[in-house]
Design a protein that fits this description.
Glutaredoxin, seven-stranded mixed beta sheet, alpha+beta
């Protein structure tokens, strides 16, 4: 399992962009995790699934609402990761009004989740292999802090906790 001080694994996530610009074409675009995080401070949070109750009601809204505070604390980007396809993540971004505040990145085959060791098997609930709920602060590709939730919990991966860690870093 990934830990503080480790480099984030090599993986390609997908991002759905509805508006062409900033080097992004419309549609799903690959995001090389290592290249996209190089030289930046990234607030990453991952969750089991788009449109799920806790994720939609609490997790994403907290990061959207505190996006300016993250920027003020030196965070260049906020990434939301979920084991969903890019089209679902794009629709969820519209629903959550993430705009340019949170990048909604799809880990469709759970490659990133598997590489970090932060998977959650929800096969019994008909959802297959998913990402565990967690947050981490990444500086230039290296994990600075990591907050992993216990199954079914939402206590340490929230925006407030990671924002406090970003301010202290």
């Amino acid at each position: 399992m990934i830990k503080v001080g480790d480099r984030i694994p090599a993986a390609t996530l997908m991002e759905y962009c509805e508006v062409e610009g900033n080097g992004c074409s419309i549609g799903p675009n690959p995001v090389d995790v290592q290249k996209a995080s190089a030289g930046k401070t990234i607030a990453v949070f991952a969750l089991p699934g788009a449109f799920t109750p806790t994720c939609s009601a609490k997790h994403v809204p907290g990061y959207v609402q505190q996006a300016a505070d993250f920027k003020a604390a030196g965070v260049d980007e906020i990434w939301c990761l979920s084991v969903n396809d890019a089209f679902v993540m794009g629709a969820w971004a519209r629903d959550q009004k993430t705009g340019d505040k949170v990048r909604m990145l799809a880990d469709g085959s759970a490659d990133f989740a598997k590489a970090t060791g932060l998977t959650l098997d929800l096969t019994g609930r008909g959802m297959g292999l998913r990402s565990n709920r967690y947050s981490m602060l990444v500086k230039d590709g290296v994990v600075q802090s990591l907050n992993i939730e216990a199954p079914g919990k939402f206590e340490v991966s929230d925006a407030g906790t990671l924002l406090s860690q970003a301010k202290a870093a």
